């Protein structure tokens, strides 16, 4: 897999099957029905990695899909974020949930410092400004 | 007799009242109340003002007054490097570029990035329906068309879900979507459809439409591969009333991708109208806002084109065209498009067929989103445009237009095998995971059932219990794979694993991804390269053969073998004894019956399914009853009704004769007339009865006596007899004409009706 894969590297499962790995290092070839049956591969091995998402972002950008690439970049940052925290953040973004602008900014800062989620944090900060302006916050 | 003044209605209106069409409601155009498809006085004029690289105003709204949708569109959709150029272009010129095959798709997609919602609308409203369909064919992202199925049932019965999912996958649906009657059954539905769709070939993507948080959890457990119900709306109030904002939905889209799950948003004309917050804007303008939002979010695709709002959109003038325009906007904005054609927008089958046709011939990433692969009453989303009842109609439309609607006809035995295997596989999983223990009777009832009203299977209550157990015990896709494997369903275990493994590389997260023949096809490696005739998607010879191979095709072999089934029975009823070349009759009361070359030799029944012995018997009986004498001659030189009749008349002592083809078409003719100027003709053999043939015999005898009889009328109910019979008619006629010998004279046939030993006609 090239460092910045492009459209010619698609699909990665075919062009870079040796380098595409699950979160615990298993390759696509390692993950067989027998391995699952023996318990050697679990659902934890069947998750996408930030690396794979960034590679897809790079392909999307090469295909001229900047917004899709940005979504994949945001997703890459969320891989490490636990499900409960994702759902809690989603809940905060719903109308009338976050009590004020600061609550959203604090959440952004936490995601940035704990998970290195820069683009997610920026996204939340942007939401905070517009929510404040449009009165979508609780207070 | 009533006076004219007593007439108060042309009864045609009563006939029209009884048609399914009149069940549809049609809305008066009323932009102020949101009932306008393309234009409303409240729609803004396109406009964009950039100041110092920032958007100062868009579509007549200043930045400080932007609502959440404007703000999101301005921030994430509009590309300031393209916008000045794109917004300055003449909308009519852009409209022409959309249908100009010489302008590359990539160029159009680039320009769309710089257009505001009002600008996009100002372009596409200029296209008529045909131009929209053509532009859609040009702009859709992936070259190969696909389709999506709904798989649900009224009981949330997992066994039936598995069986129906297997058939849907077997018919070639690229995606399957389920939902529940009872929300608690979500996990059970997901498990059942996943196992069912792993029977046969692998590669069917699957989603379980449920509450946002739960849907994500089901996805994270590996049961589903995509989500499609991330709803967005075109007004701020609709959005917040739906308990979301553009930011919350965009975050959710990223969350799905972070779990390796493909996602589409959903929007569609009429949704804001149904929610009561339409701001008096036209449907298309609001949808353009939705789609710009979606592009800005970076979601892979959209499910749009009316969707739940399709019925109300279709009630408005231009509504069907509006839905096409919505889909065009989606693909122009480079979004994968599951193009609606799901909610049943009409009770009229004619409107259904008309609705689907542009999509079928233009192709679409997913033509329906989805098609009801189950019966209407089993569809937990509500009936689709096409349903289990009508799937064969869709298959035939594919064949009619040689257009790929993504489906492949399967033979009955294959469908049954798929259902059996799916039910066995799911039963094994349910037992192995100790979730339930279906009985043989339950399984058998499901395998055979067309719909849930015919099953003796799990109740909604039991389905909910199974579902809760799956969730409570934290069962995931690998537990299912393990259970299948342990019980010998290795092929299914492997298929299921392949689907879950897609999320590791994330290839299928790219725009317009489906799995075909074990490979990902997407807008990246299968881009729509349409550039005029001979380019873009074309049926291969092999794919054409698949599409065209519908069931019960008729060829000469089928017609002959169907006829041959009556050979033995007919030979026990009648004997045609040839007695050499016939002479001209002298008896003034004689009526000659000229039978065709294959009559009673290769063909034994008319297209009205009457035995030829009975038909000939009726003619002879009628001639006798009319005071005539019948003589039967076989014509070898012609198989044409007119010439059979005319030749019979020429040979007849009275100068009157009857000609009859083996398929049952019969004519009374007279000596010396022009061939096609006959006296009476039964042209609709399929609806001609023995009584009619007997009456024709009587009339022929009456002509022989010098009388002018009242013609026999064969009443028709307006059946499409051509559609019902012409394949057979043309085939039989070809068999007959192949037997003709132009130089051979008519031959006397001694007809002997067996059984009572009565010989009713004599040669010579």
Per-chain topology:
The complex is a heterodimer of chains A (139) and B (764).
Chain A: H1 12-15, H2 33-37, H3 50-62, H4 66-78, H5 83-93, H6 101-115, H7 118-134
Chain B: H1 12-17, E1 48-51, E2 54-58, E3 61-62, H2 68-77, H3 83-88, H4 91-98, H5 105-112, H6 117-124, H7 129-139, E4 148-150, H8 158-170, E5 175-178, H9 186-197, E6 205-208, H10 212-220, E7 226-231, H11 236-241, H12 246-258, E8 262-266, H13 271-275, H14 283-297, E9 301-303, H15 310-314, H16 319-332, E10 336-338, H17 349-362, E11 371-372, H18 391-401, H19 412-432, H20 440-448, H21 460-472, H22 477-486, H23 490-505, E12 514-516, E13 519-521, H24 541-548, H25 556-564, H26 567-571, E14 574-581, E15 590-595, H27 612-625, E16 629-634, H28 641-651, E17 656-660, E18 666-670, E19 680-682, H29 690-704, H30 721-738, E20 747-753
Parallel strand pairs in B: 4-5, 4-11, 5-6, 7-8, 8-9, 9-10, 15-16, 15-17
Antiparallel strand pairs in B: 1-2, 2-3, 12-13, 14-20, 16-20, 17-18, 18-19
Task: Provide a brief overview of the structure.
The complex is a heterodimer of chains A (139) and B (764). Chain A contains seven helices and no strands. In chain A, 56% of the residues lie in helices and 0% in strands.
Could you characterize the architecture of this molecule?
The complex is a heterodimer of chains A (139) and B (764). Chain A is mainly alpha-helical. Helix content of chain A is 56%, strand content 0%. Chain A contains seven helices and no strands. Chain B has 764 residues and is of the alpha/beta class. In chain B, the strands form five sheets. Chain B has a seven-stranded mixed sheet. Chain B has a four-stranded parallel sheet with strand order 6-5-4-11. A four-stranded parallel sheet of chain B has the order 7-8-9-10, with helices on one face. In chain B, helix 27 links the parallel strand 15 and strand 16. Chain B starts with 11 loop residues before the first helix and ends in an 11-residue tail after the last strand. In chain B, 58% of the residues are buried. Classes of the chains: A mainly alpha (139), B alpha/beta (764). Chains A and B meet through helix 1, helix 2, helix 3, helix 4 and helix 5 of A and helix 2, helix 5, helix 10, helix 11 and helix 12 of B.
């Amino acid at each position: 897999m090239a460092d910045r894969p492009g459209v010619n590297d698609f699909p990665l499962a075919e062009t870079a099957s040796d380098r595409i790995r699950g979160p615990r290092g298993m390759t696509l070839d390692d993950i067989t029905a027998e391995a699952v049956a023996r318990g050697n591969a679990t659902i934890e091995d069947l998750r996408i990695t930030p690396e794979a998402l960034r590679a897809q972002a790079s392909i999307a950008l090469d295909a001229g899909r900047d917004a899709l690439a940005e979504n994949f970049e945001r997703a890459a940052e969320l891989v490490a974020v636990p499900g409960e925290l994702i759902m809690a953040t989603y809940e905060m973004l719903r109308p009338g949930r976050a009590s004020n602008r600061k609550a959203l900014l604090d959440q952004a800062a936490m995601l940035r410092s704990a998970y290195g989620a820069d683009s997610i944090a920026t996204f939340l900060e942007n939401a905070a400004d517009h929510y404040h302006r449009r009165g979508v916050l609780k207070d | 007799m009533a006076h004219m003044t007593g007439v108060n209605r042309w009864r045609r209106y009563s006939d029209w009242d009884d048609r399914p069409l009149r069940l549809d409601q049609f809305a008066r155009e009323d932009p102020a109340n949101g009932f306008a498809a393309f234009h409303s006085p409240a729609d803004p004029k396109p406009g964009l003002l950039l100041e110092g690289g920032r958007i100062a105003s868009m579509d007549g709204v200043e930045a400080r007054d932007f609502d959440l949708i404007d703000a999101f569109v301005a921030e994430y959709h509009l590309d300031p490097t393209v916008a000045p150029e794109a917004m300055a272009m003449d909308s009519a010129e852009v409209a022409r570029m959309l249908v100009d095959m010489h302008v590359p798709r990539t160029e159009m997609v680039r320009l769309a990035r710089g257009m505001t919602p009002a600008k996009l609308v100002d372009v596409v409203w200029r296209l008529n329906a045909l131009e929209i369909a053509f532009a859609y064919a040009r702009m859709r992202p992936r070259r190969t068309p696909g389709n999506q199925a709904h798989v649900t049932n009224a009981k949330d019965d997992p066994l039936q879900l598995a069986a129906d999912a297997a058939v849907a996958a077997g018919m070639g649906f690229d995606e399957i979507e389920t939902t529940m009657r009872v929300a608690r059954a979500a996990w059970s539905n997901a498990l059942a459809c996943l196992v069912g769709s792993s029977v046969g070939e692998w590669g069917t993507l699957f989603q379980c439409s449920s509450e946002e948080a739960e849907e994500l959890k089901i996805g994270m457990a590996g049961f589903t591969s995509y989500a499609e119900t991330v709803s967005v709306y075109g007004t701020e109030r609709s959005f917040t009333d739906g308990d979301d904002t553009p930011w919350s939905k965009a975050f959710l889209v990223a969350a799905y991708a972070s779990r390796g799950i493909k996602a589409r948003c959903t929007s569609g004309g009429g949704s804001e109208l149904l929610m009561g917050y339409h701001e008096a804007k036209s449907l298309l303008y609001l949808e353009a806002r939705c789609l710009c939002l979606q592009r800005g979010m970076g979601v892979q695709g959209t499910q749009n084109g009316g969707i739940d709002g399709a019925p109300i959109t279709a009630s408005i003038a231009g509504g069907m065209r509006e839905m096409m325009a919505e889909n065009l906007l989606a693909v122009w904005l480079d979004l994968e498009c599951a193009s609606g054609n799901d909610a049943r927008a009409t009770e009229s089958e004619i409107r259904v067929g008309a609705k689907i046709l542009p999509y079928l011939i233009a192709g679409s990433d997913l033509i329906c989103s989805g098609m009801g692969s189950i019966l209407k009453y089993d569809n937990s989303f509500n009936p689709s445009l096409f349903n289990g009842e009508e799937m064969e109609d869709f298959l035939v439309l594919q064949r009619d237009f040689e257009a790929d609607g993504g489906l492949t006809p399967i033979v009955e035995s294959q469908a049954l095998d798929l259902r059996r295997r799916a039910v066995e596989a799911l039963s094994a999983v349910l037992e192995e995971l100790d979730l339930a223990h279906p009985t043989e009777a339950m399984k058998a009832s499901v395998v055979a059932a067309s719909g849930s009203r015919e099953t003796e299977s799990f109740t909604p209550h039991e389905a909910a219990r199974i579902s809760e157990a799956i969730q409570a015990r934290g069962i995931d896709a690998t537990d299912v794979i393990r259970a299948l494997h342990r019980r010998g369903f290795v092929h299914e275990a492997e298929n299921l694993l392949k689907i879950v493994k897609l999320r590791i590389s994330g290839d299928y997260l790219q725009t317009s991804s489906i799995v075909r023949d074990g490979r990902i096809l997407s807008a990246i490696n299968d881009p729509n390269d349409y550039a005029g005739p001979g380019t873009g998607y074309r049926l291969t010879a092999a794919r054409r053969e698949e599409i065209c191979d519908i069931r019960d095709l008729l060829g000469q072999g089928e017609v002959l073998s169907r006829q041959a089934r009556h050979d033995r029975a007919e030979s026990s009823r009648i004997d045609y004894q040839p007695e050499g070349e016939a002479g001209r009759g002298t008896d003034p009361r004689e009526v000659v019956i000229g039978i065709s070359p294959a009559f009673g030799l290769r063909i034994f029944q008319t297209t009205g399914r009457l035995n030829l012995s009975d038909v000939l018997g009726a003619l002879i009986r009628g001639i006798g009853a009319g005071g005539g004498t019948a003589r039967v001659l076989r014509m070898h030189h012609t198989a044409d009704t007119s010439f059979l009749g005319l030749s019979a008349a020429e040979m007849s002592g009275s100068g009157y004769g009857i000609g009859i083809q083996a398929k049952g078409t019969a004519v009374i003719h007279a000596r010396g007339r022009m061939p096609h100027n006959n006296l009476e003709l039964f042209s609709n053999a399929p609806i001609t009865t023995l009584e009619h043939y007997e009456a024709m015999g009587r009339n022929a005898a009456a002509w022989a006596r010098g009388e002018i009889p009242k013609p026999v009328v064969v009443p028709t109910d307006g059946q499409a007899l051509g559609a019902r019979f012409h394949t057979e008619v043309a085939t039989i006629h070809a068999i007959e004409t192949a037997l003709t010998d132009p130089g051979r004279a008519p031959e006397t046939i001694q007809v002997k009706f067996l059984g009572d030993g009565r010989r009713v006609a004599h040669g010579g």
